[in-house]
Amino acid sequence: MSQTATAPNTAIVILAAGKGTRMRSAVPKVLHEIAGRPMLGHVIAASLEAGMSRLCLVTAPDQNNVRDYALIEAPDISNCIQENQLGTGDAVRAAMSACEGVARVVIIFGDTPLMRPDILRQLAASEADVCVLGFEPEDAAAYGRVIMEADTPSRIVEYKDADAQTRAISLCNGGAMAVRAGVLKELLPQLQNDNAQGEHYLPDLVHLAVASGHSTGLVLGDTDDTLGVDSRKGLAHAEVRMQTRLRAKMLEAGVGMQDPNTVYLSYDTDIEADVTLEPHVKIGPGVQIGEGTLVKAFSHLEGVHIGARAVIGPFARLRPGTVLGNEVRIGNFVETKNARLGHGSKVNHLSYVGDAELGINVNVGAGTITCNYDGFKKHITRIGNGAFIGSNSSLIAPVTIGAGAYLGSGTAVSGDVPADSLAVTRAPRRDVEGWAQSFRRKNQEAD
Question: Active-site residues: which are they?
């Protein structure tokens, strides 16, 4: 792995073979997105940040797209196949050959996008032979319960197998677990499926460990760390929790938000101090915003780099490949795509600028469009420093507007315009005296 290991000689096994039928989607459950990134991507990122020395992914035989995605995010990941979905214990068995030679194995789920790297480090650093992640939610609902004896876990009971007394326990099973590799190899074959689901439960390792004289331990997390997603409702809830986390991070970094709950960020959003985000701003993946920039209400940004002290919106849409220099102004109902604008340039009203390169201090008037697509290929529009593009102009690419040139309003230009010149393509005006009066009379008589 590319990152320095902080959990040496530790493998992390990510269980992702679940079918996710409750999602009611052709997309595998773990590839549904939270804050612009698949849930599995969040889990892999947390594992890498925790510094695990080896990553293993367990998937079902037909989940090629899940395995392909994982290899993009972590090229060294080991893909392991669970031939039949016979429970979490069976899933870990599928990964055992990939864990040969490590001292410790941390097991987590691919549908827990809010798991923090610090929790994974704590699990990996535990000296217990079997260490489980627990949490105490406000509503324990149908979570499995962790039974404690002498301040250590003695067993985990699934809700469906629990009696009323056990269900009254507030400490719940968070799903993740860390096991000494030798102990895992010893205990996995002992898992039985005599339970309500007829599956091999990984949590049964706890009571098997106690019965065999092995030590157990507990890491206490919060509800976000353990939040698993298995439905559309759960996905929406996880999005809310992730957005709360991202907004808090931005506010702490000096980003201003008038109404944080209406601003949506992505996992990789990079915003410098003194940027202000007005209400109802949505930021997709790949966005960087320089200091002092103002993003006005109802603007949508994705895949863009914005310099310092720019003003964006309201109602602006900046699409991937947009690079804006310092003090650029993008106004209301302006769309950009694959466009570079130099320092101080302005596109203030009702315009589309795509596949274009604008120099410094260019002014683009209202209603201007770059006609970049001919039905087969995209073409580039280049506008030199200080050029002035009059309102309602059409720049038919490929075309170059020279530095300091002027385009008169209503101009459609398909050839290059020399620097410091004026281009005008308006048709000659013709006035027909009395035409309107005659037209009205004729139509009134017809009625």
Answer: 349
